[in-house]
Design goal:
Shape: extended
Order of helices and strands: HHHHHHHHHHHHHHHH
Distance between the termini: 77 Å
Helix content: over 70%
Structural class: mainly alpha
Number of strands: 0
Largest sheet: none
Radius of gyration: 27 Å
Strand content: under 5%
Length: 286
C-alpha cells in the first residue's frame, strides 16, 4: 500500500482530487452556460434574429435554441421577442404561405415558399412554426393585457374611493349605464365574481375616466394628462387586442405594433408614474 504525504493511500487521494476537479469543471461549465444565455438574450434585445445569433456566436442552431429557451425561462426575454426578431418580411412570407397551403408543417411551407421564389432559413422557419403552434404571441400579450387591466382597475377604484368613500364610490363615481352593464354581466355569469366592479372592461374604464376627467387629472400620469384624446384612444385599441387574445382559435395574432403599444402603455400606467398613487390609491382599493 502506498501513502501520500498527508498520510492517506494514493487511491483515496487521487479519487478526492478527481471529485474536486469534476466539481470545478461543472462550476466553470455552468458559468460559461449562464454567460451564453445572457449573451443570447442581449442579442435578441439588440434586434438579432436566431440565425444571426448563430453566426455571431459561431455556435450551432440547436445550441441557440437551447439558450433561447433558457433565456425565456429565466425571464430575460419573452418568446414574442424571439418571433419579432425574425425579419417582418420573412414572417409575412411564412404567414402568406401558411394561408396558401393551409398547412403549418415546416416542409410544406418551405417547399411552397421556394416555389414562390423565397428561401427562408429552415431553422428559423421551424422555430417560428413551433412558437406559432404554442400560441406564444397570445400568451405573452395576455400577460400584458392582464397586468394593464388589473393596474387600471385598482387605480381607478382607488381614486373613486378617495373621492366618494367606500360606501358611495360605486353609485356616485360610476355612470349608471356601466352599472347596469355590469349587473347584467354578473347575473349571466354562472360563477359570479365577488365584486360587481370586476365586470368592467376597457371601454367601461375609458368612459369612467372621460366622465370624471377633472378628478382623475389630479392622479393620472403626466403623459396621460397632456393628451387626453390620445390616452383614452388607447383603451379602444387595447379592447381590440384583448378580443384577439380571448379568441385564439381565430389565429388573429397580435402584431408587433400592438405589442409596442401594450408595452408602452403598461409602462405609462405603472404606479410610480401616477400622482399621489401610494397614498390615494394603494390605501383605498379594499
Amino acid at each position: 500500500m502506498f501513502y501520500n504525504s498527508k498520510g492517506g493511500d494514493d487511491y483515496t487521494y487521487l479519487l478526492n482530487n478527481c471529485h474536486d476537479m469534476i466539481a470545478s469543471f461543472q462550476t466553470i461549465w455552468e458559468i460559461s452556460r449562464m454567460a451564453r444565455i445572457h449573451d443570447v438574450a442581449r442579442l435578441i434585445k439588440s434586434g438579432y434574429s436566431p440565425g444571426e445569433i448563430e453566426r455571431e456566436l459561431q455556435i450551432g442552431f440547436g445550441s441557440v435554441k437551447q439558450y433561447l429557451f433558457s433565456s425565456i425561462g429565466a425571464g430575460l426575454i419573452q418568446g414574442s421577442e424571439v418571433i419579432f426578431s425574425i425579419p417582418a418580411d420573412v414572417r409575412g412570407i411564412i404567414e402568406a404561405t401558411i394561408q396558401a397551403t393551409n398547412s403549418t408543417y415546416w416542409y410544406d411551407v418551405y417547399e411552397q415558399a421556394k416555389v414562390n421564389g423565397h428561401t427562408p432559413s429552415q431553422d428559423e422557419l421551424r422555430l417560428y412554426l413551433d412558437f406559432r403552434k404554442d400560441l406564444i404571441l397570445m400568451k405573452d400579450m395576455y400577460g400584458y393585457i392582464s397586468n394593464i387591466e388589473v393596474t387600471l382597475h385598482r387605480a381607478i377604484k382607488g381614486v373613486l374611493v378617495a373621492k366618494y368613500g367606500h360606501a358611495l364610490w360605486w353609485r356616485d363615481g360610476i355612470p349608471i349605464s356601466i352599472r347596469k352593464d355590469c349587473a347584467e354581466s354578473k347575473e349571466e355569469d354562472p360563477e359570479p365574481g365577488r365584486e360587481i366592479y370586476c365586470y368592467t372592461n376597457f371601454i367601461h374604464l375609458r368612459e369612467i375616466l372621460d366622465k370624471q376627467w377633472p378628478l382623475f387629472s389630479h392622479y393620472l400620469p403626466n403623459s396621460a394628462i397632456e393628451d387626453k384624446k390620445l390616452f383614452l384612444g388607447y383603451f379602444t385599441k387595447l379592447n381590440h387586442i384583448r378580443n384577439k387574445v380571448m379568441h385564439p382559435v381565430k389565429e388573429n395574432f397580435p402584431t408587433e405594433e400592438e405589442f409596442d403599444l401594450a408595452r408602452e402603455f403598461y409602462k405609462t400606467i405603472q404606479p410610480s408614474n401616477w400622482q399621489n398613487f401610494p397614498r390615494a390609491i394603494n390605501q383605498n382599493t379594499g
